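W.,

You were right to be curious about this one. When I first looked at the sequence I had no strong expectations either way, so I just let the prediction run and decided to look at it fresh. Below is the sequence, 458 residues in total, followed by the output.
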Amino acid sequence: MPERRSLVDRHVGFVHALRDAGVPVSLAEGLDAARALRVIELADRESLRAAYAATLVKKPAYRPGFDVLFDLWFPASTSGMSALRPDTAIDLETAEVSELRAHLAMLLSGGGTEAEMREFAQAMVERFGRQQAGPGRQNWFSYSVMRALSPETLMAGILREVLQGRERGGLAEKTVRQRVNSGIKRFEDAVATDVRRRIAEDSGIERIARSAVRPPLDQIDFLRITKADLAKLRREVYPLARRLAARLTIKHRKGRRGRLDFRRTMRASLQSGGVPLTTHFKPPRPHKPELVILCDTSDSVSSFAHFTLLLTYALREQFTKVRAFGFVDTVDEITRFFVPGADVVEAMTKLADEADMVRFGRTNYGHSLERFAERYGDAIGPKTSLLILGDARSNYQPPALEVLKSLTSRARHAYWLNPEPKQQWDTGDSVASDYGAVVPMSECRNVAQLTAFIETLA
């Protein structure tokens, strides 16, 4: 039997589960959500969902995880095997699979309500989703339901039924395909939701909640990111690049004064008997900062390297002068691959094939820094911001700290972003603290931390 919880218990548990899943919910927002429950009809589950979403969800990226947890903490009521319209009612416990597929085809083609789709999905989970795991134990699975009904194979029959001899390939067929594909997605989601509900009833909501929700996109570690996540992150990179460019421009403007304005200083000294108590300076000449990026592209940080190359590509379009360099155990300038207007995927492919960043294939920060100073040392000057991206793991090779000190002493600002957790710094072949003593090093494991780093530049 599922554990009974009061509404207060469910509210508190739901808010804690959101925080554990990486969705930021403050105490004030939790109280706002509780107040919202006083002005809605609690029996209307979608109104309850909307009230919580309006008070607790701040970004669209947080919504998928929110919906999964909401369905766990406030599950839809179940009504067994008979909640179908009288004119289409079938015995879902004994009906042939062909009859069930025909009924699903009707739902997918728009012949039923959302509630009927949900009730049918619950019934199919009850019939096909259960697998015995031992005496008195059972597991629930979505794939067995989808395998039994194979909704993706229903498209041809639905098209024949709906189009009824009309010409194929036109707008009508496109509309039907879109409707059916949308229906399949809703059915899959309904099945997955009910499977999670049943597992939660057997194992506890907290246990399934910890594994059911992926972290929001901005909190996924760069070192564990997938190609699909990288594709989504492209939309996040460009606003960050613009903010980083703006912050670096502010740093340059605040950190520099113009030449002494002798005339204004002497004029002001007349008020103090000719003693120049206050000095005045001419405003600095406006200019955009120059940026040099030094990026570790080795396999150990390959996912982070892909993200930093995306960032490099975006930054290339925000500055008038950007020079980018990639390294493994030697270094090469990669600016040429990121010209404005170039396709980012094509640029990365060419970079991997043509750039000279590898001698023996083992990361060597010391040799890379020495080669950079030797070949490209003139890239860094008094107007330059130096941004180093890497995990500071150099396979126990000499770190070339004096070379790094020389480079950073010539730069206006220098920053190091490290994708590893701080707890792992200085373990194994990491020399993070040694490098961090020369260049301020910040943990940068995800987009949220990169955003926080950019905010500190103000």
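Here's what jumped out at me. Residues 79-86 have pLDDT under 50 and may be disordered. And, maybe more interesting for your project: Residues 171-203 form the longest helix (33 residues).

Coffee later to discuss?

I.
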